[in-house]
Structures are given as C-alpha cells and as structure tokens.
Specification:
Strand order of the largest sheet: 1-2-3-4-5
Helix content: 55-70%
Number of domains: 5
CATH architecture of the largest domain: Orthogonal Bundle
Number of helices: 26
Mean pLDDT: 89
Distance between the termini: 55 Å
Strand content: 5-15%
CATH topology of the largest domain: DNAb Helicase, Chain A
Radius of gyration: 31 Å
Shape: globular
Structural class: alpha+beta
C-alpha cells in the first residue's frame, strides 16, 4: 500500500489544471477552466476544471473526480500507477506496491514486444533481410528513416521469433497474448503470426512498442497484417508515429495525418516531422482526442482516389465534432503523398499542404462533382443539397462566404442559395424542437435540493453545521446523495484535510463520485448561500416527511388486511403525529 500521507502530498502538490492541460485545450472562464471533454464527443465545451477545488467534471457525460481519477481515465491505468506517475513528475518518491495481475501482465507484454522489435531489427540487417532492404531501397526509404522508426524484418521461418522469445525466458501463453504467435490447429505448440514481412513497430505515446504492422514483400494477402487487440493495444486508440511527431505537432500547432505507414515515413523524411497516421483504420474519436492533446488543427493528406476522398470527409467530420480545425489536401499526378514526394520532391508536398482546403469548401466541391451542372434539374438538386449542408454552419459569416463560393460554382445568384439555406434551417430547427418535446424530462425538485445542499455543506462551514443540526443521513432519499450524506455526517476532517476529497476517496462507486464533482462544480451556489440552504432543507424535510407518511399508510393497509387492530392503532397514532 502507498502511505496515505504520500498520496495526500502528491495530490496537494499536483496542479490539476497543468495535468489536464496536457490532454485538453483549456480556456479560463471566470474561476474555472473549460474545454472539450476527452471522454465523450461534444461540440460545445462542458468539461470544467476547478483550480480552487482541484476537481474536474463534465456536465455532458457526467465524468468527474480529482487529479488521480483523471489520469486513471485518460491513460487507462490503475490508482497506484496514477499516483506513481504524478509523484515522479513532482519529485515525490512512491514506494512501489506489488503490481496487480493486470498491470504485471502488461509490463511483461511490453518487455516481450521490445524483444520482438529488436529481433525484427536484427533480422533486417542480416543476410535473410535482403528482400526487405531491397524493398526499402525501391521505395526510397533511407537507412536513417528506417532506423528512426525501428523498421525490421520477420523471417520466413514458421517459428523463429517464437523460439527466440522462449530462449529469452518468455512464456508461450504470454507471447500469444501479445499477438505475436498463433496456436497450431490440432497440434501442440505455436507458430509466428508475422512471416516474410517488412515490420513496422507501433509505439504508444510514451515510446513503448505495443504492436506491429507487417507489409508483405510479395503478392501475399493481406498486403498489411496488423497485430490483434491485446491488453496493451487497441487499434482504434492508437495513432502510428505520434510518439515521434508529438513534439513537432505542439511546436507547429498542426498535425499532418496520412493514410499509410510508408506515407508517414516519406513525409517525415521530406522534412515534415509533424506527421502521423490512423493505422489502417478510419479515424476514430479516441485517435482524435489523442491528437488534440498536442494541437487543435489537423491537415488530412489522404490518397487521391475516391476512397481516399471519402475517408478524408469522414475523418474531417469526426475532427470537427471534437471542436478542432481541419483542412484537406489534394494531389494531382500522384496517388498518395509518398508517390508525390518521390516523383516531384518535398516542395510539391509543401505546395499541396499550403493549398489544402477548409472542410466546407472541400465538401462543397466534392458534392458538386456528383452532378451534371449543365442540366437544370441536376443543378436544382445540387443547390438543395448544398443549402442543406450550409444550413448546419453556425458561423453566419462563414455560411455567407461559402454560400457565395457555392453560388459561383452553381452559376446561380448568391441570394437564391441563401433563401434555400434559410428554408433548410427552418426545417432542421423544427425537427429539433419536436424531438426536444418528446425527450424533455420533468425537473427533480428533491434531487436538485439534495445536490445543492451537499455542495453548499462542503464549501460553507455554517451550512455544514446547520445541515447536521437540522437533518440526518436518512433524510437524503437519492441513492448517490444518501451515500455521500452517510460519509458527510460521519467524518470529522483533521487539520489541513479537505472534506470534499476525503469523501471522494471513501466513495466506492463511480456514479456517486461523478454526482459529487457535478454538485461541487455547479455555479450559483454562493450568490445567496443562506437562502439556498433554508430552501433546500425545507424541501428535503417535506419530501422526507411525505415518504414517512406514505410508508405508514402502506403499513396501515397491510395491518387492516391482517385484522391486526393493535398494530393499526399504533400506525394511526404515528400517522397523526406525522401530519399534525
């Protein structure tokens, strides 16, 4: 166990705003900081961080907690790991506890993956690696670039890697769990997953090898073979090359995103060190959030074919949904960034990057390609679809400017297009209004009173004293409120202890923790604390009394059914006592 005093010192000395700023772009709003939540997709910032309370809470998805909770959620690590990591940052030594089974297994997998990467690297430099070196030379990938990215070669042998790892002390089951081998069908033993392939190690943002991508050197299928998901790797959560690119991305406040591993190497070698790739998958929200730790701007440089354009459009929509800016580059005379750089040089890629289009312009031009604009009916349909697209743009200036651009391409008056945009906007707002009527929920008077009173009690000593005098834990009827009240009434914090953090530490379920951070970071409580306190106590007392009356009435009905006159008389007396 880590001593509580050490945990408290690390928490006290850690600045939650500084820690979270490494993951989320925060902007000061009054006493707090606001940003887009890293735990769910949102367009309007609802993720709040309080430097005063050293807490965070998202009013969109409900996630909340202290600095340890944030790191645990953001990095998918345990409490002890979060404490140790923060302790290392601020110079506080943490006595390592025995690792959990899951964290111990992960550490072993990291070790096995590093051994595999070194094995593949050595194989590339051996005589057997000749075909892989020839492929690299053909693709004009320099020795220096190959070394930087740790490229290697998987020999043709069925089990050479497996035997090597066993000789280094790795357990067969662990090697399989790492995604490096497969069990032989109908036989004992294992065989290597990757054979006769150029190997691209995949690193996490900390530079640890977590997976591999193997490129076939002949016509074998699949062309690229990727590691399966493992305890240390999930494809949709990883961005290839980000560990090398993140510092340059921060420096330039822009990331270049390409489709393939070779594109990453070519663009990097051409002098653009802020390049990464989504690793053979459509861009995911998780990958987007990973990139957003370093920048709010992404340029997409995907393949120049129809599939590449469609992938760029889908990716751009995800990027925009996270509140980030996006531009999309196009190429002529080349199918992808790698080919463009090989044929025309780094200057051609730089020019394509400079000419990259904003998302809406790219989408408008791509949309209009589908129509024969020489035909009136086609132009009419194109106008309606363009208007529908632009009706969703909230920035009035941007909407008007893009309407002017689209009108020019459609060869219609800008006013004609603006009229259709307004019509589409009315249709959209009408649908949203109807939906809100269906989904709207009635307010919870008791729930609001409990939440406000708990928050007030933790921020105002007079309120806490009044609550303890006027109420009891049993008066708090809500599930989360009741659990918090039990601790609130029982705890007597020592000198220098923070009662809010004390309660957070004692709560065992996430719902109650999120409830508490949401209560504490809600605004408006300090404008009239005495009045709010009186109103909340009054509501809670009334609802608590109503509950007791309902319970007595229910018990009375049961007593009357059972002809238990004595019990019924006692309940009637109790009921009169409650009512009068």
């Amino acid at each position: 166990m880590i001593p509580p005093a050490v945990i408290e010192e690390i928490r006290h000395r850690s600045d939650i705003v500084a820690v979270i700023s490494g993951y989320v772009a925060l902007k000061k709003r009054g006493r707090n900081y606001l940003g887009l939540c890293p735990f769910h997709s949102e367009k309007t910032a609802s993720f709040t961080v309080s430097p005063e309370k050293q807490l965070f809470h998202c009013f969109g998805c409900g996630e909340g907690g202290n600095v340890f909770a944030f790191l645990m959620k953001a990095e998918n690590i345990g409490f002890a790991e979060a404490v140790a990591e923060l302790g290392e940052k601020i110079g506080v030594k943490v006595g390592r506890t025995a690792p959990s089974t899951s964290s111990s297994e992960k550490e072993k997998i990291y070790s096995v993956m590093l051994l595999a990467a070194k094995f593949f690297r050595s194989a590339l430099e051996s005589e057997a690696g000749g075909p892989a070196r020839e492929y690299l030379a053909k693709r004009k990938i320099s020795e220096e670039t190959a070394k930087t990215y740790g490229l290697g070669f998987a020999p043709a042998s069925w089990d050479e890697l497996f035997k090597h790892l066993i000789s280094r002390g790795a357990a067969p089951e662990l090697i399989e769990r790492a995604g490096l081998t497969l069990p032989r069908e109908g036989k004992d033993g294992y065989y290597d997953r990757f054979r006769s392939r150029l190997m691209f190690p995949v690193f996490d943002v900390r530079g640890r090898v977590i997976a591999f991508s193997g490129r076939a050197l002949d016509n074998s299928e699949p062309k690229y073979l990727n590691s399966p998901d493992t305890p240390v790797y999930r494809k949709g959560d990883t961005v290839y090359g980000l560990n090398f690119a993140k510092d340059e991305i921060k420096k330039k406040n822009a990331a270049i995103l390409v489709e393939g591993n070779v594109d990453v190497l070519s663009v990097f070698a051409a002098g653009f060190a802020n390049v990464a790739a989504p690793l053979g998958t459509a861009l995911t929200i998780a990958q987007c959030k990973l990139l957003s730790r370093s920048t709010d701007t992404i340029m997409l440089a995907f393949d120049a074919d129809t599939a590449g354009e469609a992938a760029a459009e889908r990716s751009a929509e995800i990027i925009r949904s996270q509140g980030m800016k996006v531009r999309i580059a196009s190429f002529t005379g080349a199918k992808d960034p790698d080919e463009l750089i090989k044929n025309e040089g780094a200057a051609a890629f730089s020019a394509a990057a400079d000419a990259a289009l904003p998302y809406l312009e790219f989408k408008i031009r791509r949309l209009l390609k589908k129509f024969n604009l020489g035909e009136i009916e086609a132009r009419s349909q194109a106008l309606r679809e363009t208007a529908k697209l632009l009706a969703g743009e909230k920035d009035a200036f941007a909407q008007k400017e893009y309407a002017g651009l689209a009108a020019g391409l459609l060869k219609v008056e800008a006013e004609t297009l603006m009229t259709e945009i307004k019509r589409q906007g009315y249709l959209s707002r009408g649908s949203e209004k109807n939906l809100s009527k269906v989904t709207e929920k009635p307010g919870d008077r008791l729930g609001a009173a409990e939440k406000k009173l708990i928050a007030l009690s933790l921020q105002n000593e007079a309120a806490l004293a009044a609550v303890k005098q006027e109420l009891a834990p049993a008066n708090f009827l809500g599930s989360e409120a009741g659990k918090i009240a039990e601790i609130l009434f029982a705890e007597q914090p020592g000198a220098g202890e923070n009662l809010s953090h004390l309660i957070l530490d004692k709560l065992t379920d996430e719902a109650s923790k999120n409830y508490l951070t949401g209560a504490l970071l809600s605004e408006g409580l300090m404008e009239n604390p005495a009045g709010i306190m009186r109103d909340c106590i009054s509501v809670i007392k009334a609802e608590s009394a109503k509950k007791r009356v309902d319970e007595i009435k229910s018990a009375l009905r049961e007593a009357e059914k059972a002809n238990d006159n004595q019990k019924a008389a006692e309940l009637i007396a109790a009921l009169k006592n409650e009512i009068y």
